[in-house]
Amino acid sequence: MSETRPARTSMSAALLVVGGLLAVMWALELLDSVTLNALDSYGIEPRQASDLPNVLWAPLLHFGWAHLISNSVPFLVLGVLTYLSGAVRWVVTTVVSTVVSGLTAWLLSGVGTITAGASGVIFGYLTYLLVRGIFTRRISQILIAVVVFALYGTVLLGVLPGVPGVSWQAHLGGAVGGVIAAYLLHSKESRVR
After folding, report:
1. Residues 6 or more apart whose Cβ sits within 8 Å of residue 105
2. Could you tell me the superkingdom of the organism this chain comes from (predicted)?
3. pLDDT in tens, 84-135
4. Quick one: pLDDT at residue 20?
5. E strand or H helix at 23, and its extent?
6. Tens digit of pLDDT for each residue in 41-68?
7. What residue spans define the domains of the chain?
8. Domain 11-192 falls in which CATH fold?
9. What is each CA distance from 47 to 120, 132, 136, in whole angstroms?
10. C-beta separation of 82 from 128 below 8 A
11. CA distances from 10 to 80, 128, 158 (A)
C-alpha cells in the first residue's frame, strides 16, 4: 500500500504566516491603545448570543501590552512548530482550538467577565504537539513532544481555576481543542500502519 504525506513546510513560510498573525495582534493592540481600549469590548462575554461571533477574533485581541507580550513568544514558538507539520494542519489546529476555547469561555466564564487573548490557541498548539505522537507513533514527534513538555509543560496548570483575571476556561477549551485537532488529523495514521 502506498502512503502519502503532506509536503513539508519551510521554516521561512512558518515564520511568515505565524509571525504575520502575531504582527496583526500587535497592530490591533496599538489600535486598541490609541482608541482607549475600544477593542476590548469585542472579547467574549459569557452566554451572550450576540457575542458568539467574537469567539473567532477574541484570540487576536489582548488586554494591554503586558498581556500581549506574555503571549507573543509561546504563540510564535508553538505556532511555528505546529505550522512545520503542514499548513493545513496548522489551520485546522488553529481553527479548532480557537472555536473550542472560545465556546468553553463563552459557556463557563463568570458573568460580567470578558475573555480575549491568544492563550487558548497557545494551549491548543501545546496539546496538539504533545499528543499527536500518540496517534502517529513517530519517534520524531514524540521527541518534539518531550522537548515541548520540558519547556512549556508547567503552563498546563493554567487549565485549572485559581489565578484571578486569567481565563482557565479558555485555556482548558484550547487544550481540549488541540487534542481534538490531533485526533482529527492523525488518528487514521495509527490505524493505517
Report:
1. 44, 46, 55, 58, 115, 120, 167, 169, 170, 173
2. Bacteria
3. 999 999 999 999 999 999 999 999 999 999 999 999 999 999 999 999 988 8
4. 98
5. helix 11-34
6. 999 999 999 989 999 999 999 999 999 9
7. 11-192
8. Rhomboid-like fold (1.20.1540)
9. 18, 32, 37
10. yes
11. 10, 19, 31
